[in-house]
Amino acid sequence: MESAVPQELPNRDAAVVVARDAQGRVALLQAWFDDHDGEYLFLPGGRMEPGESILECAARELKEESGATAVELRPLGDFAITLGSTARVHLYEARGLTLGPQELTASETDFQLTWWTMADAVDAAVNGRFLLPAGPLALFMASRQESDAGWVPAPGH
Question: Which residue of 17, 35, 54, 67 has the smallest Cβ count within 10 Å?
């Protein structure tokens, strides 16, 4: 099948993380997006750096955007970013969090960290409060997988 999507799209994989604290609350970021004329929610995440594994990417993005480091990460699944790119988004759930300060880049300084119950976060996704699809998909998957299976030590643990 021929793709109508331009081929100059980034081909770096990305990670998105559902970080849950000891009370089960989810770390959600919110920011204003001028191009979409509104404030939206999203999960910590971003693209891999050169030489970095996807697990290292997930741990790094979690720490930078939320200030949290995790003892354990559980893969929830992955999907293609677009039909025209070989890049994939890898979804994780993080537990055993230690909280610290956010380490935001210049383009992220308006990211506000908030903590939501899983039910409220899923409701926000259902009600269109997320701009990108990876966050809602990760939340739906994490909310359905409550077992202890699949957890792996986070990098550095």
Answer: 35
